[in-house]
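Dear support,

Our group has been running a series of protein-ligand predictions, and this particular one with 2-(butylsulfanyl)adenosine is the one our PI (initials K.S.) wants archived with full inputs and outputs. We had some confusion internally about which version of the output was final, so please treat the block below as the authoritative record. The input we submitted was:
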Amino acid sequence: MSSYDDLQKLKERILEAEYQYYILDAPQLTDAEYDALMLELLAIEKEHPEWVEATSPSKRVGGFVAEQFVKVAHYGPMLSLDNAFNAEELRDFDRRVREMVADPEYVVELKIDGLTLALTYEDGVLRRGATRGDGQTGEDITENVRTIRDVPLRFLTPQQTLQQTPQQMPRNAVLQTAMQARLDIRGEGYMPKESFQRLNTERMEAGQPVFANPRNAAAGSLRQQDSRMAAQRGLRYFAYQVLQAQEMGFTSQSGVLEQLRHWGFAVNPFMKVFGSIEDMIEYCSVMETERHSLSYDIDGLVVKVNHFAHQQELGFTSKSPRWAIAYKFPAERVETTLLDIEISVGRTGVLTPTGILEEVAVAGSMVARATLHNLDTIRAKDIRLGDRVLIHKAGDIIPEVIRALPEKRSGGEREFTMPDMCPQCGLEVVRLNGEAAHRCLNPHCGGRRREVIIHFVSRDAMNVEGAGPALMTQLLQQGLIEDPGDLYTLTAEGVASLERMGTRSAQNLLDALEASKQRGLAGLLFALGIRNVGVKAARVLAMHFRSMDALKQAGVEELQALPDVGRIMAQNIVAFFEDPASRRLLDKLAAAGVLMSVSGPEGADGPEDETGKDMFAGASIVVTGTLTRWDRRGIEELIVRGGGKFSSSVSRKTTFVLAGENPGSKLAKAESLGIPIYGEAEFVEKFGVSGEFN
Ligand code: IVH
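Confirmed final output from the archive:
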């Protein structure tokens, strides 16, 4: 019979063994000894379920089955980084930094190719692990995160300090500080190459699809609803950020990394501090060749200005810190064979040729298709069917054929011609004067219809959450819809009858559709897919005409007079409203209750005061700290759309400062200059605006 005290001792031994193994890379127990302790622990906890705690190392083996992952708001936005693709761009970064701070010091860290995980500790205990999501809200995957062996379930207790070897001492030196506050730790979850290979071999043998790269495998593993599955995937974690670092008195990134290590986190050992940009560039190129010898994938390095005081000086652009940059390794070029060319039909009827390739790994993922743009490109590059070709990923994302390798031809290669008939509807394909594209002009073409609907529900258009391409295709195939107007006549039973659709998800779709009716004129105009009318033009049109009816009346001249509207676009708009098919669609949408004018204060026209003027007109507004309703980009957009200027530093010209949580030094500056300061609630009330996480 074991006592509660025995259990605690056992747990400490296991946690310590994990720390020695995973963090210090100096195992004190053999695997068999460790397994034996874990089995003993599981047996005791089985007998005494009332003794099971969130910090028990038994959590490492999983066992919790999540129904679905709950969305959670991050405690501070998770930003992304600007990229540099070569040494010159790193020097540009350095120049920009030096314009604002003298003698900057840089920390270079590896850019681990995994996924960002936000960990929250309270009283030293891991309370939450969340994915990045959209940067504002992520998914709560705590149970899966607990299975990552080098994520501490808690920091060590003070008593344990006594048992520490001198080498380990410092990790408890700051324990008191750490235990007092909530701590948000950010870092990268990843799957080591070895685990990745093992996993894929197992999956292949089991006849399951394999993962394209370790990053996808890690992401898939962390989204397992059964945490026992996640536990078997050998995931790891490197920590690189503490959200409360400055409040806790840390003054530099390198100091934080050192402290993270003492707290028991895995910190990547290749981090290095530099005073000179050239030395740093040299290190980047060394790591670029060394990358293949690492036990995990990296896709570049991250350069950060080391001192927080400097970071604060530099601040942020609307989407990323000015004090950091990601140095991305140059795109890999890989040779493969062009097996075939497939034609897809887009929303506007454009036929796009896509190369079907012999599958190869490029820049971390398997590639079997690459865009060829249009017939002119194929001709200009003299690409033939059966050719050996060189491919890369444009912007590190989109696979593209760079050129053919004619010297490798065997003679069996064939020239490609565009089909005369649309592969989707079988009707004639034409090439309009002056266009590179071939088009199917049949408005009822099934291929086009699909794209029209996918576009209609997309984020910048009607923003119907959960309405992905696969679902839209199913709705079309089942004959439940033919055009976007039909979306609003869908019933819960109809949607629920689709494959892989429950009543809950069906209702979610209907709710999202209902909400989209209030999207407002700008979103709707973009959603309609009028040729040449992009997001920006749609906004301009909405702001000017304010209702669909007013826009319908407009002639080419009037339209053309607007900013961002050219002659061709103006003609296309007029043609759109003259087309009986568009009129029918608009009637259908109006009958369904879709808003045909600008929406409330946050409509396409931006916030306005009662007199109808732009409400921030002429104002220069500075925002400091974290807002709950908007991220940086959101608040900037609101201000700019309202006619204001979004400024990054406080001066006498500043109209007012909007201060969120944890405001920075800008607040003090505004106070000293006597500039009005509004809290978020005050701001919302004064201007009648509301925001949301999005
Ligand atoms: S710093 C504001 N450091 O790269 C600070 N990011 O766009 C932003 N990443 O997905 C992140 N290793 O998860 C930072 N040592 C490292 C990193 C790192 C990988 C990822 C990060 C994010 C992307 C940055």
